[in-house]
């Protein structure tokens, strides 16, 4: 299949758009192949159609690629008790963990926003961080253009599971 990647820059990040071109790996360590990225975007778009969002009418889909090459998808699932709603990204991650996989390579997020890249909420950024700071998050638009960021870029100076075992003050009985 032919895929071409057009690279632009906003000064900090590469803004890319899949148009048409050649098959193969992108330059750079661990980068997703164009084919895989296209498949991931298509999976995120597809699962978005299952979004249960009667309150927000805001559909989101996510496709998560594990380091052992499995893809787990998730959509947002809202609830009449507002704060019980779950984001697409978290659903995809929870599905992977439930199947025994905690090693993530990339997640692609899809929404219906035409003019901006869908940006994960703070809760999902922290949820991603639980499974490492150095994996990729692709923020997309419906035209398949995307912005690639790392979890660390989305959540700098983050708190993670390793911090719980760092040197602490000694306390007794909670004081
Ligand atoms: O990255 C995002 C942003 C929003 N939502 C969901 C949460 C809620 O159901 C709806 C509106 O915020 O969109 C996601 O699933 N992922
Ligand atoms: Zn979220």
TrEMBL record:
Residues that hold Zn(2+) according to the record: 87, 121, 124
Chain ranges of the CMP/dCMP-type deaminase domain: 35-162
Cofactor(s) annotated in UniProt: Zn(2+)
Function description: This enzyme scavenges exogenous and endogenous cytidine and 2'-deoxycytidine for UMP synthesis.
Catalytic residues (UniProt): 89 (proton donor)
Protein name: Cytidine deaminase
Keywords noted in UniProt: Hydrolase, Metal-binding, Zinc
Native source organism of the sequence: Periophthalmus magnuspinnatus
Statement: the UniProt record of this protein carries the keyword Phosphoprotein: no
Listed EC numbers: 3.5.4.5
Catalytic reaction equation(s): 2'-deoxycytidine + H2O + H(+) = 2'-deoxyuridine + NH4(+); cytidine + H2O + H(+) = uridine + NH4(+)
Signal peptide range: none
A molecular function (GO) term: cytidine deaminase activity
Listed SUPFAM superfamilies: Cytidine deaminase-like
Hydrolase in keyword set: yes
A UniProt-annotated Pfam family: dCMP_cyt_deam_1
